[in-house]
What we know:
CATH architecture of the domain at 78-281 and 329-399: Orthogonal Bundle
Shape: globular
Mean pLDDT: 90
Number of strands: 10
Helix content: 40-55%
Largest sheet: 5 strands, mixed
Strand content: 5-15%
Strand order of the largest sheet: 1-2-8-5-3
Amino acid sequence: MTMPNYPFDRDATLEPPREWAELREQCPVAHVRLPSGDTAQLLTRYDDVRTALTDQRFRRGGPDAARVSTTRDGGIFNRAASGTDMREGEGHLRWRRLLTRSFTVKKMETWRPRVQAMADELVDDLLKSGSPANLSAQLALPLPVRVICALVGAPSRDQDRFAHWSQVMLTLTRYSQEEVEQAYQEFDSYVSALVDARRADPGDDLLSELTQISDSEDGRLSHQELIATVRALLLAGHETTSNMIAIMAAMLLSERERYQAVIDDPALIQGTVEEVLRLDTTLSVIGFPRVAAEDLELGGTPVQAGATVIPCRPAANRDPRRFEDPERFDPRRPNAAQHLSFGAGAHYCLGQPLARLELQVVLGTLTRRLPTLALRDGVDGLRLRKGLLSGGLEDVWVTW
Length: 400
């Protein structure tokens, strides 16, 4: 039997590849070939995926990890937090302790009025420019960039540079190793200068707070750790969230009753956001690979020490063992927030309170101010972004 290539092709832009459901029922730990040519084991059941994300017998990356992208270094997963001890174990726990206080739900909620003001300003501009409009370029990208730049203390005028650097760094098949090296060098030089400026002249922002952080037990963040942290915040803060805003709009407008339900009952905003996060199949192309530190079993299937596994979170989010009638969009689903879109365990996404807040604000603003919003080209006009680890959609054009 020929080993399948992963990621799988799909028949419809917003729908999952048929192989996810087939493997979940028949071969939940399946060997696949990655774009690099290396092999890994794909996990598609909720319990197995969660185990790989939370069990200490799995680690992130390492010299024996399968390469994901076609570049020589195998992609961003093999480079994240390089030169620091932030990736795993005590070093990662120390890093999270230092940052968690800055990303609590309570602290992020204090940003809601500012995020709302930014969203209203962008929708004002959208209305002035008139219908049709590119929702991706005019709202989905600039809002998270403005928010994360305000939070970190970076000038939002540099948003095009962040977008370029992050796309190159997140390459799967699109960019060369030389282009990746240049992006890292430019991004790190930019962040390093930003760190130095904030350390010398602190302001009222997260980066200033981080440069001053000192933990009595663990010590302050090193310069290299600060660079890796800010790079990750800028990258995730605009790339992932901006894509998710566009996906949310497309998913709700592709079946208009979903959007109308929020117009009729704004109390559904939070539940709708969770269902969008649970049901999205486009953003996480490969996910976050893990490497088995010892021989073990998942779902009754042997996984050898040193093997790379791909915990497929979007497939897990549709597992009927965890979610009743999982293909149905239900904003009142009681356990929707148990989805794994933000990961789980020690590596659970630190920025998820901010991402959720931004999605809620955008949904509330659009349904309140643009009740007649529609996809200009219908669902058939939507196109997947290809060749990057962070997927999502190409430009989402809307009318009203």
